[in-house]
Design goal:
about 220 residues; three-stranded mixed beta sheet
Length: about 220
C-alpha cells in the first residue's frame, strides 16, 4: 500500500504541475479525457490492481467516461503518454515488492531412503567398474610364462575405488562400504565384496553384495 500511495502522490504532483495552453500544437490527452471529448476507447496505465480490468503497470483500454469519472479522480489510472509511462515504470522498480518463491519441504521417509539404498545397491551389483592403470614393464619382461599375472606399477587402493564408483556409476559410498583387505596389484577381474546395511534385501540367490572391478592395461 505504501508503494501505491507514493506513486499516486508523485502522479498528483505531475498532474497539478501540468499547464495546458491553447497555443500548443498538440493538445494534452488529459485535457480531452477531462473535457468529455468522446473517444471509442482510451488507453490508460493502471496504478493499482483492479479486478476484471488489469494489474498495476498494465496498459488497458477503457471508456473515456469511466476514466474521467472513476479512475482519474482516485488516481487509479493515468493516460498512456510517455511522461506517465516512465513514472509508473520507475515507481514499480523502486517500490514493487519482490515475490518470495514458496519452497515446499518434502519430508523424506524411512521407506523412501530404503528404496534409494536398494536402487544404489542393485546398480553397484549389476555394473562393472573399469580401471586403466600403468603396468610394471620390468616385471612384465621377467615373466617366465604368459600365464603369470601382469603386475601394476602402483596398486589400486580402496579410496580409488570409491572415487571411480562416484565418477562412473554416480553412486556415493564410503571406504567402509568396500571390503578390500589388500589392494589390487595385478591386471584382471575382481569381485570386491560390499558392506552395505543388512536392512537392504539381497536379490534371490545372492549371499552378499559385490562390485565387479576390471583392471586393464593403460
Amino acid at each position: 500500500m505504501s508503494s501505491i500511495q507514493c506513486g499516486r502522490n508523485a502522479i498528483r504532483q505531475i498532474v497539478q504541475g501540468t499547464s495546458i495552453r491553447s497555443s500548443d500544437g498538440a493538445v494534452h490527452p488529459l485535457f480531452h479525457a477531462c473535457q468529455g471529448v468522446r473517444y471509442r476507447k482510451l488507453e490508460v496505465i493502471l496504478t493499482t490492481n483492479i479486478e476484471k480490468l488489469g494489474k498495476a503497470g498494465e496498459t488497458v483500454k477503457v471508456a473515456p467516461g469511466y476514466f474521467r469519472n472513476h479512475l482519474m479522480p482516485k488516481l487509479l489510472a493515468v493516460p498512456n503518454i510517455e511522461k506517465y509511462a516512465y513514472l509508473i515504470s520507475e515507481q514499480r522498480k523502486i517500490y514493487q515488492p519482490q515475490e518470495v518463491e514458496e519452497v515446499k519441504v518434502v519430508t523424506e521417509t524411512v521407506e523412501n531412503k530404503m528404496k534409494e539404498y536398494e536402487t544404489a545397491a542393485k546398480r553397484l551389483d549389476n555394473a562393472r567398474l573399469v580401471l586403466r592403470r600403468f603396468i610394471n614393464v620390468e616385471k612384465l619382461r621377467m615373466r617366465a610364462t604368459k600365464d603369470e599375472p601382469i603386475e601394476l606399477r602402483s596398486p589400486v587402493m580402496k579410496e580409488e575405488l570409491v572415487s571411480e564408483v562416484a565418477r562412473q556409476l554416480c553412486v556415493q559410498i564410503d571406504p567402509e562400504n568396500i571390503h578390500l583387505p589388500n589392494p589390487l596389484t595385478n591386471v584382471g577381474e575382481y569381485e570386491v565384496p560390499l558392506r552395505l546395511p543388512k536392512s537392504i534385501p539381497l536379490p534371490e540367490g545372492k549371499i552378499q553384495w559385490t562390485l565387479n572391478v576390471k583392471v586393464r592395461c593403460k
